[in-house]
Design a protein that fits this description.
Largest sheet: 25 strands, mixed
Strand content: 35-45%
Number of helices: 3
Helix content: under 10%
């Protein structure tokens, strides 16, 4: 009897507890319990999760906080302490108003937090304005129709160094920015927006001005459907591992190196880069004064590698309004901002013996030292480019990333799965499930980061989009493979003979490959590299006898005198590299630069003339 009695009592207690818990969860919202959405299981294997792309939230459960009246505030999982706003639990927090000399701090271990900026201004003189100290993932949503700003100063000062932070928006965890509002970020002495994990941007109008990198991710940085403008003294956009640009409008108006990462994948969008060193750089190497991975492949434009940042300049938007450019460097159809006339920092010296790389360095054409000409006009048809992916889908990452299924790398596959084919010698292929393999000729397994030995070479892979680069160093630079499968690409490369418009890492087994798209790359001829003969699309590289000056019109004509492409040079030079689906073997083409003309007859998949050299594929 005693046992039965105790059993009945225990069952009664359990029943009562069950009823209480049921009532709590049924009435959770009324009791102030915040419902947290999952990070979208249906797209968990993608580059962007569904929640990355969805800025919506539940108004009924969101916690609203007015930063103008923060003293003593305690709301849900947040509270004020010492003037700072602390968020310590999962949920959605809608912020409005201003916060001066204090921070919005997230310290919510293993929680997902959404911060909605609804007309917010946060400033701090020595620490991050938004500071994610701990979380599983944080979403910053820019509310529709609102203007928001975050500003931090002295990020290289004692307080920031002691706290081990170096950005106006700084996150220890994965960080996503979405929504349709605007965000202005100013960072003195540090980066604009930085994540020590992944940084994802899927919407909004974002402007960043910084003394270090504009956007910085210690791992992967991915952008889609956003309008991003960056003026940085170091890299415009930087990731230690991988940069993915899928759509939107990206303007790097000032940088030392424009876009930098070990792997760089450009799949679409309108992208404009001005750099006082490499435009786009894939690879890694020397470290800048801010402690970031530096580029090995020259001193120029886009380098898949690493680097620093530099000077201002911009190009008319293909499909939208362009930010103003510095005075003295005219836009394709507008004004250039001040500061474009010259490079404000010292150029690094070439390594000892570089000048003897291929004999005596050629003299620069007259006027090369000065860049004060007009920015070129957009080639006909570029302004109507829709930003759609070329046929064949995303394809693989290329390079020696080969035969590694992306779905095996932390569950990540390329978005919008599709198939793609590259060249037979090194075809990048993607399966319908979104997995991909890189160049078979460089197949190797391994991890791009972590404790495993690095077995993959860097890769800059362009699948589509509109791309314009104006660089004092290499235009497109990779310390491994540089692969172009589509898009419309214009490179106003260097006038200095120590750099080239295009530069692949042949010393590490890399190739310069073109399989599709329309490419015009111009600049100096001292380090000229043409496309490899393992490419699928015809190309030619010529060195014009008289050279050309900034402001000269460069035209490519077929044998009937039809203009295939036209561009106004922003810098002086002598080399012209061109590739297009219109080119045919055994046909003769004319390069008109200013008043001078140079003819070239295509004798193979890659033809060089006038001192240009053809690179040969490494084979399978």
């Amino acid at each position: 009897m005693s046992f039965s009695k105790h059993t009945n009592i225990l069952c009664g207690i359990i029943l009562i507890c069950t009823l209480v818990l049921t009532l709590v969860f049924i009435n959770g919202e009324a009791l102030g319990i915040t419902v947290v959405r999952a990070d979208v299981a249906e797209d968990e294997e993608g580059l962007f999760t569904g929640r990355d792309k969805d800025p919506s939230y539940d108004e009924d459960t969101a916690i609203r906080i007015n930063l103008d009246d923060l003293e003593g505030e305690v709301s849900g999982g947040s509270y004020e302490m010492g003037g700072d706003l602390y968020i310590v639990q999962a949920g959605t927090y809608v912020l409005s108003g201003s916060l001066e000399e204090h921070s919005v701090i997230v310290n919510a271990s293993e929680a997902k937090v959404q911060i909605v900026l609804e007309g917010v201004s946060v400033t701090h003189s020595s620490l991050p304005g938004i500071w994610v100290q701990d979380a599983d993932k944080v979403f910053i949503t820019l509310a529709e129709g609102t203007e928001n700003s975050v500003s931090s100063g002295n990020l290289d000062g004692e307080a920031a160094v002691e706290a081990d932070v170096d950005a106006a928006i700084w996150s220890k965890s994965d960080l996503t920015i979405n929504g349709s509002g605007s965000l202005s970020v100013t960072a003195e002495g540090g980066h604009g927006i930085k994540s020590k994990d992944d940084l994802v941007i899927t919407g909004g109008q974002i402007e960043v001005e910084s003394d270090a990198d504009g956007l910085h991710a210690n791992e992967v940085l991915s952008i889609m459907e956003a309008e991003v403008t960056v003026a940085a003294k170091d890299d415009g956009i930087h990731a230690d591992d991988e940069v993915n640009i899928c759509s939107g409008t990206i303007r790097v108006t000032e940088s030392y190196e424009g876009i930098e990462g070990y792997f760089i994948n450009i799949r679409g969008g309108d992208i404009y880069v001005t750099a006082s060193d490499d435009g786009i750089n894939a690879g890694g190497g020397s470290t800048s004064e801010f402690g970031m991975m530096g580029g090995m492949g020259g001193m120029g434009g886009m380098n898949a590698g690493g680097g620093r940042s530099g000077s201002f300049g911009n190009k008319e938007d293909f499909s939208g309004e362009q930010s103003e450019l510095p005075e003295g460097t005219e836009d394709f159809s507008g004004e250039m901002p001040e500061g474009m006339e010259g490079f404000s920092g010292e150029r690094p010296e070439l390594p000892e013996g570089t000048e003897d790389f291929s004999g005596e360095m050629p003299e620069l054409p007259e006027g090369t030292e000065d860049f004060s000409g007009e920015m070129p006009e957009l080639p006909e048809g570029m302004e109507d480019f829709s930003g759609e992916m070329p046929e064949g889908g995303m394809g693989g990452r290329g390079g020696m990333r080969g035969q590694k299924e992306l779905s095996g790398e932390e569950g990540r596959t390329w978005p919008e799965s599709g198939t793609a084919s590259g060249s037979e010698s090194g075809a990048a292929s993607g399966s319908e499930s979104g997995t991909a393999s890189g160049f078979a000729s460089g197949a190797a397994s391994g991890s791009a980061s972590g404790s495993e030995e690095q077995t993959e070479i860097p890769c800059l892979h362009i699948y589509g989009g509109n791309l314009y680069v104006n660089s004092e160093g290499d235009g497109l630079d990779s310390n491994g493979d540089l692969i172009i499968d589509g898009g419309t690409i214009v490179v106003d490369g260097p006038s200095s003979s120590g750099n080239g418009p295009l530069d692949s890492g042949t010393e590490s087994g890399g190739e310069l490959i073109v399989n599709g798209g329309t490419i015009l790359a111009i600049g100096s001829s001292g380090m000229l590299e043409s496309f490899a003969d393992t490419s699928e699309q015809y190309s030619f590289a010529v060195v014009t006898e008289e050279g050309y000056q900034a402001g000269d019109v460069i035209e490519i004509l077929d044998s009937d005198g039809n203009v295939l492409f036209t561009h106004t040079a922003a810098r002086s030079g002598s080399a012209v590299i061109f590739s297009s689906a219109d080119l045919e073997e055994n046909a003769t083409y004319t390069v008109r630069a200013g008043d001078a003309e140079t003819t070239v007859t295509l004798t193979g998949i890659s033809t060089s003339s006038g001192g240009a050299r053809t690179t040969f594929g490494r084979g399978i």
